[in-house]
TrEMBL record:
GO terms for cellular component: membrane. It comes from Oreochromis niloticus. It is a multi-pass membrane protein. Residues 462-547 form the STAS domain. Coiled coil: none annotated. It is found in: Membrane. InterPro entries: S04_transporter_CS, SLC26A/SulP_dom, SLC26A/SulP_fam, STAS_dom, STAS_dom_sf. This is Solute carrier family 26 member 11.
Amino acid sequence: KQVDTSRRCCSYNTLKAWLPILSWLPKYNLKWLKMDVLAGLTVGLTTVPQALAYAEVAGLPVQFGLYSAFMGGFIYTFLGTSKDVTLGPTAIMSLLCSSVVGGEPHRAVLLSLLCGLIQAVMALLRLGFLLDFISFPVIKGFTCAAAVTIGFGQVKNILGIQGVPQQFFLEVYYTFHKIPEARIGDVVLGLICLALLVTLMFMKSSLTSDSDSTCSMYARKVVWAVATMRNAAVVIAASLIAFSWETYGNHVFTITGKTTRGLPPFRPPPTSDTTANGTVVSFGEIVEDFGGGLAVIPFMGLLESIAIAKAFASQNDYRIDANQELLAIGVTNIMGSFVSAYPVTGSFGRTAVNSQTGVCTPAGGVVTSVIVLLSLAFLMPAFYYIPKASLAAVIICAVAPMVDYRVVAKMWRIRKLDLLPFFVTFLMSFWEVQYGIVGGIAVSGALLLYSMARPHIEVRYLFMSLSSGLTFPATEYLSHIIHTRALQVSPPRSVVLDCSHVSVIDYTVISELRDLLRQFKLREVHLIFAGLQVHPSILKVLLAADLEGLRHNHSMDEALQMEVGPNMSLKTRSY
């Protein structure tokens, strides 16, 4: 009976490890429910406008952002180990997706399936440690370059210009080249949206809690709520303005336009594609076209989400299971591919909102997912009037904090060599995003291998062995060797002089050693005699030397302290 109980207990613990929901669901209470619903609603109102905006970054129709935003909430509730993390489309994953699939929805959905399979297999094989080989300079270089690329990529939507290529350098050229074609309505609306978002962001960061008055507390809560949902508020206001102009037949703004209504169908992701001229592209050819992106995107998704989970776990005093997080993200991407989602990961901004609102369990993600599903079911016609300039403003404000220029100064102070992989990643990412990551990892790995193959060796002591007696002809040569190898190097080295083979020594040598001892003393290093045998001839010379004068020399006095053991060996102490 005890054996059966032990087995059941072990099985239950194993099940809890694979389904973390079992560790908190039995303790769920009404207070947790209230906080989770509040947090879920708040994050949901942040998620909807961001998802629409990030679909633009991925080069996909806006509804694909919402298709990608709801599956993570359901899956993570069962498999996630962090109460704060929210999974969904992010700026970085959208940029990576755009660079790999080139704005083709079918390929984006297939990419989600393949990324999820890779991530889930890594979790099952406990390969999360591989993420440790992506160094901090590489991550920072990539995120800074991604922020610049994403942010500048939205300038064309603020200006309302068309026909700008996606490649970064061409995008920069044609954006400036087409400035005369900018639409006044988009520019004015975009700048107003930016100004409002920045103002609300600063208002939220400047809130303090030092006042005890009820009125002040209520006002702070109102400001905090409006500032937290600033993306939704700005997009709704901009949409109302655009709707009012469109109603009177004035096409002042570039709007999102027609979107697919309703929930996405639940079906397996496509394993082939058909080009505009009717050519069928096989599964193998699609995977070949994905190239290195099929390795970069799963890794960056895992890295981003686990870094966020660890940060908030440390902040809120709980622990996460990194491999279980890999499984949660992998299963989310696999199941997301059945509802036309593109690859997702943890969102830092929405996770911060979730934590600040006081979420208690991952169940808050279910409420967020319901908000997204309701938006898909009932609000898609309203999304027709969303100005692209307002979505561009949301994206720019979301990615601006990712440009961390202070990290360069920190790396310069701590280890200048770390700037090499940082700048390699940063600069190559403007060419191709995945090339930047691969190039940064390669440089970082090369530096790591070089440091392993060529470790810094600090020589503090020099060991010299004398093969015969010490007499006056050898004095100058011995002094020269000791000076060049020990005293004239930087920094000076201590010397261990092996005298085990010395059977003869004369007064000239003693005088030279006295001078050497003084030189070693001045440089604060040691000259140590090892294995010096008490031979009658040596003892005779030592006794004949001016020992009285040496006793006043502290270094020599210490050097000639002798311990004569049973075997008559003479040892001098280190001094």
